[in-house]
UniProtKB/TrEMBL annotation:
Domain of life per record: Bacteria
Pfam hit, one: FMN_dh
Keywords of the record: Flavoprotein, FMN, Oxidoreductase
Domain FMN hydroxy acid dehydrogenase: 1-382
Named cofactor requirement(s): FMN
This protein's name: Alpha-hydroxy-acid oxidizing enzyme
UniProt similarity note: Belongs to the FMN-dependent alpha-hydroxy acid dehydrogenase family.
Length: 382
């Protein structure tokens, strides 16, 4: 049966992917308080319903950094898209291209930005930057992105440590992937993924690697990085952000902001936007929910910079709730990964289409004919 919603795609992805792989993309960190809180915050938010407005054709388009998008959606950078489906990053980029929305390439993707651009020609690519210990290698990434004509850079700042994911230790999966009895049995019981994804890589291009590492530092995902200079920077400060601002002449967006003070400081250093994000519950388990942090950040910097938001989007109404709380657009990550895991480009596009349809319906039910009408008063307060 064709999936009818993101939850259906999630269940289908759970059946298809090895348990370790599915839990890697699906679960949170530590006690998963943050993961549960994201959904609880969205579910607890109610929307005002207005009737007898002309909502015959709600306009879901918006302008982000001078570009008109048919949906207020950007596909989030995710490091494992290339593992849920063969050439998963290319498949996701093609789905985004078909929908007319941007796809953000991850620093730790399995496919290089150049190969994604070639495989999804015409796609609107953004780039997400993690800063390496070797800042020279970071500057090389910026030069490569510029050479491709990429204009929008997401500087991810909320991952100063590798988060604690105890369940990955128990299920035998992690990056790097380490041989284990549990992991081996997991692969044997999921032959479709093992043959269609991993075996295909092994027989063609070899075991996947982090494609943005320089060739001399590149290792397969079965081995830990042994060179310190390609590890993510442990000491990351506002000076690094300012340095990237000097190097990058496109739009610079700080990702992982949950405090108005940080948003204001980013603005003072020349940021063009922020992503209000609790990293989908995958980093600090006790972080505030992005939806809760968003209004104060919007009050502090709204109108002076672009405000994006992410974490936990499963329904079109979730998009409305983020926009009503102050976001100009949202980033969607796990939902389109589920789609990609089920059917590559077709599956990812299926998820985008569902979110677009639900967004249209939610706008109609709440009496909003265009996104600019989704303001703070769209949220019902008893």
């Amino acid at each position: 049966m064709k999936p009818l919603n993101v939850a259906d795609y999630r269940l289908a992805a759970k059946r298809r992917l090895p348990r370790g792989m599915f839990e890697y993309i699906d679960r949170g960190t530590e006690d998963e308080v943050g993961l549960r809180g994201i959904r609880s915050a969205l579910d607890a938010t109610r929307l005002n319903q207005h009737v007898l407005n002309d909502v015959s054709a709600p306009d879901t388009s918006t302008v982000i950094f001078g570009e008109t998008l048919p949906l207020p959606v950007i596909i989030s950078p995710t490091a494992v898209a290339g593992l849920v489906w063969h050439d998963g990053e290319v498949q996701l980029a093609r789905a985004a291209r078909a929908a007319g929305i941007p796809f953000c390439v991850a620093t730790q993707s399995m496919t290089s930005m150049e190969d994604i651009a070639a495989g999804a020609e015409g796609a609107n690519l953004w780039f997400q930057l993690y800063v390496f210990e070797d800042r020279g290698l970071t500057r090389d990434l910026l030069r490569r992105a510029k050479a491709l004509g990429i204009r929008n850079l997401l500087f991810t700042a909320d991952t100063p440590r590798s988060p604690k994911k105890e369940w990955n230790t128990r299920n035998g999966f992690g990056i790097p992937i380490k041989p284990s009895l549990a992991g081996g049995l997991d692969l044997l019981t999921h032959p479709r993924w093992s043959l269609a994804v991993m075996a295909r890589y092994v027989l063609t291009t070899g075991v996947p690697t982090y494609a943005h590492y320089p060739p001399e530092y590149r290792t397969s995902i079965t081995r830990a990085a042994v060179w310190d200079n390609v590890k993510l920077a442990r000491r990351l400060t506002w000076d690094d952000f300012a340095e990237v601002r000097r190097e990058w002449d496109g739009n610079l967006i700080l990702k992982g902001v949950l405090s108005p003070a940080d948003a204001e400081r980013a603005l003072s250093l020349g940021a063009d936007g922020v992503v209000v994000s609790c990293h989908g519950g995958r980093n600090l388990d006790s972080a505030p929910m992005a939806l809760d942090a968003l209004p104060k950040i919007a009050d502090a910097v709204g109108g002076r910079m672009t405000i994006l938001a992410d974490s936990g989007i499963r329904r079109g109404s979730d998009i409305v709730k983020y926009i009503a709380s102050g976001a100009d657009a949202v980033l969607v990550g796990r939902a389109t990964l589920y789609g990609t895991a089920v059917g590559g480009e077709k599956g990812a596009k299926g998820v985008i289409d569902i979110l677009a349809e639900e967004l249209d319906h939610c706008m109609a039910f709440t009496g909003r004919s265009r996104l600019s009408e989704i303001t703070r008063d769209a949220i019902w307060r008893p």
